[in-house]
Amino acid sequence: MNLANAKRIVMKVGSSLVTAEGRGIDQAALDNWANQIAAIKRTGVDVILVSSGAIAEGVKRLGWAKRPTAINELQAAAAVGQMGIAQAYERAFSAHQLHTAQILLTHEDLSDRTRYLNARSTLNTLLAQNIVPVINENDTVTTDEIKLGDNDTLGALVTNLVDADALIILTDQRGLYDSDPRKNPQAQFIHEISAVHPDLENMAGGAGTGVGTGGMYTKVLAAKRAALSGASTVVASGREPQVLQRLLQGESVGTLFTSEFSRVNARKQWLLGHIQISGSVNVDAGAERALLDKHGSLLPVGVVRVNGHFHRGELIAVLNEDGKEIARGLANYSSAETAKIVRCHADEIAARLGFAFEDELIHRDNLALHR
Ligand SMILES: Nc1ncnc2c1ncn2[C@@H]1O[C@H](COP(=O)(O)OP(=O)(O)O)[C@@H](O)[C@H]1O
Ligand SMILES: N[C@@H](CCC(=O)OP(=O)(O)O)C(=O)O
């Protein structure tokens, strides 16, 4: 398995690389990644960057001797440093006549359905305009309780958000070893491993330097999360020459974390677990059988009741006649529209509503069954 066929990738770079271990933005490193990204973009691959470094750069610009621990000081540092990060990427990509776009995300932007769809649509629009999105967590407005905390997790969530084929995490080590190579010189390098391998979390230790957050531990969790949405993850050294091009030519560089899930199944899993439910419908026994036994779509004719308030495109639960949840899926009609087409055959929808979208209330591709 390799990344030779990847068409859309998320590349995450850590604080220690971006800021030369906290000494300040490493413009040469950014220029090097921009060269590589520009080259792979010319081959038709979409690239989204997730970059850390705001706090480390802010601490340096503020002249503070070490990274503070108080939240307000960390947030202030992030606000100062983010200006430098944005400026440095814009500069690096301008050499290739490419523009960048800064996107600062919070946990809520990724868990709330409407915000999630908005973020996704903005990112897709930027990619269609050949812009390079540069994403970071919005550190200045996030409090401890809602903080994603590390950009490895953010990288995995963005991978899901934009349906990327692969997440590439560049760091200050060659990849994953069977124990922390800073502590164990005998540590063995791992070229390829399943992202859901049970030993992963024992192998991976914490951050290597004072500027990184989470270490290899958050990277293996990110790989697992990306795998659940069907993407492979590579952890490799950001200093490895031509690392991006080589990976996309199918070469084995760093550690490849493979995903056993197909993209379609992964999307369904994600539907089951990750998004707030807006409402539900009860269906009759015939519709229940069509869903569970025949993997069919949910048609309005099988719907007996509409509960709650939802818009077209939102996630709703499907309940059987006894009120037990049997599935979840994305509704093609709002709750008000659905209420008008309860028990309707497909050819009656237009007459009832004055218009018709799809024949199904939930298409089977957007339906995840509970089993
Ligand atoms: N099993 C392991 N294999 C490789 N690196 C590990 C392992 N366990 C812990 N680490 C540490 O993880 C560090 C990279 O993570 P981190 O410091 O958070 O960097 P970044 O800023 O790139 O996210 C390495 O420098 C290394 O010391
Ligand atoms: N959002 C923070 C990054 C936190 C983080 O995950 O750092 P790292 O482990 O270096 O990727 C910042 O920009 O400083």
From TrEMBL:
CDD domains, per the entry: AAK_G5K_ProB, PUA_G5K
PANTHER family in UniProt: GLUTAMATE 5-KINASE, ISOPENTENYL PHOSPHATE KINASE
Xref: PROSITE patterns: GLUTAMATE_5_KINASE (PS00902), PUA (PS50890)
Job description of the protein: Catalyzes the transfer of a phosphate group to glutamate to form L-glutamate 5-phosphate.
Name of the gene encoding the protein in the UniProt record: proB
E.C. numbers: 2.7.2.11
Subcellular location: Cytoplasm
Chain sites annotated for binding ATP: 12, 171-172, 213-219
Main location: cytoplasm
Protein name: Glutamate 5-kinase
Catalytic activity: L-glutamate + ATP = L-glutamyl 5-phosphate + ADP
InterPro entries, A to Z: AceGlu_kinase-like_sf, Asp/Glu/Uridylate_kinase, G5K_ProB, Glu/AcGlu_kinase, Glu_5kinase, Glu_5kinase/COase_Synthase, Glutamate_5-kinase_CS, PUA
Gene Ontology MF, one: RNA binding
One term under GO cellular component: cytosol
Protein family: Belongs to the glutamate 5-kinase family.
Ranges where the PUA domain occurs: 279-358
SUPFAM superfamilies: Carbamate kinase-like, PUA domain-like
Pathway: Amino-acid biosynthesis; L-proline biosynthesis; L-glutamate 5-semialdehyde from L-glutamate: step 1/2
Keyword vocabulary terms for this entry: Amino-acid biosynthesis, ATP-binding, Cytoplasm, Kinase, Nucleotide-binding, Proline biosynthesis, Transferase
